[in-house]
Amino acid sequence: MPNVNPKILIWARETAGFSVEQAARKLQFKGTKTTTATEKLSAYESGKPSG
Fold first, then answer.
1. What superkingdom heads the lineage (predicted)?
2. Separation between Cα atoms, residue 43 and residue 26, nearest integer Å
């Protein structure tokens, strides 16, 4: 995912009325053995993408 301003990412998700879980599904984030899709989105929202 390209560099995204975390504040804008949070604003967009909240404006759309999505929870972190719902947004991760809509964005088609995939989990791995060590990180869930929700954790990935949370990392982007905190400014620390997990890759």
1. Bacteria
2. 16
The identity of residue 50, as a single letter, is S
- On whether the CB atoms of residues 23 and 9 are closer than 8 A, the answer is no
Tens-digit pLDDT profile for residues 1-37: 568 899 999 999 999 999 999 999 999 999 999 999 9
User: What is the pTM assigned to this prediction?
Assistant: 0.84
DSSP for the chain, please give it: -----HHHHHHHHHHHT--HHHHHHHTT----SS--HHHHHHHHHHT----
Round to the nearest angstrom and report the end-to-end CA distance of the chain: 8
Q: Whose CA is closest to 23, among 15, 13, 32, 35?
A: 13
